[in-house]
What does this fold into?
Amino acid sequence: MEPSFTCNPDPTSGFLTVFLDNEQYTITAENVNFSNAIKFLSEKNWDELKFVLDPTLKFNSLYAQYENIIVKDGNVTIDGELVNGIIASRIINLMASNIDCTPIFKFMTRLQLNPSKRAVDELYTFLEHKNLPITSNGTIQAYKAVRENYTDCHTGTFDNSVGNTLQMPRNKVDDNKDVGCSHGFHAGTFEYAREFMPSNGHLLIVEIDPADVVSIPTDCQFQKLRTCKYKVIQEYHMTLDENKIQDSYLETDNDTYVNQKWENKPLMMDVISVSDVVNLLDKWGEDEAVQDIKKISQTEDVMPLDVLKDTIPENLFDELMEEFEEQDSEDFEDEDEDSEDFEGDTVDLSSHLDIQATLKNLDEAQYIKLKNALEKEYKNFESVQLGEVLKYIESIYDDSDYMFDILLQYKVEA
It folds into this structure.
């Protein structure tokens, strides 16, 4: 039965009121999701319409666990402690859009490496108020004002030329947030840095490891921070997009630990195809288990493994996992043989990586994951052994058949 609704689709003065599942929802043209609401209404896509009208419904349905970070019931915890504010909101919004949350988790991991609890708490407050961008490696970017000759504004002795990394002993940085101008390197928001910049000075973009932040002074309304290390990555040309994951250029002592911790982590928690599970259980005659799964999954395409494990008997879950592992092993052997057929061939990845339209069957998160993985693994994109790259893609990408076909289009002479 279709829900009842009242609608004025005008993009400037319109509104939509819908009665769904005995609840009334209203959205107006001022809401950024208004156009999506009208779209889903016209398509009679009631599930997506409900999520647009009340985003918390989708957030609360999310469940994922990454090491010591848990996202459940619309909340984020790390080591059992609730994470409030902008970081939690970013994670939940990224997950709801099926976008890789790994950079945010790397940030949280780096922050946990900060030896000062006070600095950790203050940095959350800093980001809560000013929402500066996070990089792909979990570091943060901020603004810094310098003199005309690129030395620091206070002493004129630290060279802030683009590409330089500046560092001092942590115990030389003032950790008292109640002291405004004091020892340590300072960076902050655009408003703070612009106001502090000399008339003939420069405004720079710097990158900082959260583990190196020492304090967030209160004198500038939490607009600046003090750190013991940062890297100058570029001069200011345009305001940083705080909602976009930025590229990382800073090398730190924490990189190995953080990258190993999050290497090859899934975009979401480990999930499994509901249809694959149901089909196999049907084949085995496990009608009761099928009904239990359908009650929970409803219209979902995938189900978290932890949820599946809690839904069906343990022995049945183990049998399913064994069966799927055997299938994966057989598929890998077949594709491994295929890759050997191209042992002498090479592929031009430089062309492939620049044509996202070619990857029309991949969503944005899958595309970014694959692109970043290939860029990290290979340096000479114009001539990569095809057999080698096919094996590599198989190791990081669940459905590689489509990618094999695409890469064959870029095969070049060895």
